Amino acid sequence: MGVQEPSLSNQALPETEERKQRYRPAETRDRVLAAARKLFAQHGYLNTSTQEIASEAEVAEGSIFYHFGSKKNLLAALGVAFAGEMVVAMRGTSEDLCDLEPGVTITRAFEFVESHGFSERLLGLSFDSPEVQPFMVASREVVVSFIAQCHAATMPEPMQKGMDIDLSASMAYAAVCDTLCLIQAAGSDAEKAHILEQTIGFVRQAMGYPHEWKAPKRANGRRR
Length: 224
Prior knowledge:
Blueprint: H1 17-22, H2 25-43, H3 50-57, H4 61-68, H5 71-91, H6 102-116, H7 119-123, H8 133-154, H9 157-160, H10 165-185, H11 189-206
């Protein structure tokens, strides 16, 4: 027998359209994620119980474990969602990845974090806290995959010979994450701008971009 999602009450409730809508699995999952994100930002991950999340989401507490398995897995799911939003911001309005070299993507990533916050504002957890690791590991996988795609699209093919694109994307991500700590501690906009400029320069050089970078062209001659 399969595991059934728990209901809010043991009492039989009328099968109204509203109730059917509420307990569609994907929508219930989204409600839990939204509630967790709200409460973690308000009270912190460590100070928020699964019962409080369930109450905010208007679902049974067992639904959290049905959909996520544990509070840590819920945190990881939030990491994936956050990373997805960051990737959308990094891509911007670009229809093709060819224009998304590090100067573009890193700038947009920092703007996104400045606007939305990062682990401390979102979760009440410091960047290096052990408890934040499920969030960081899950978000890292999504963002690194996108960076690798951008790197493969923007770097001229001759420069890619002998290069491990996935590894270089991982190293670029690590550099940017470390710099986030410096940005958050910066005392002025000028200092933040300097840190951002230096980070872009470092990543571009480390990943092997030509000093005078231009977007590669498609086979038909148009820039991708």
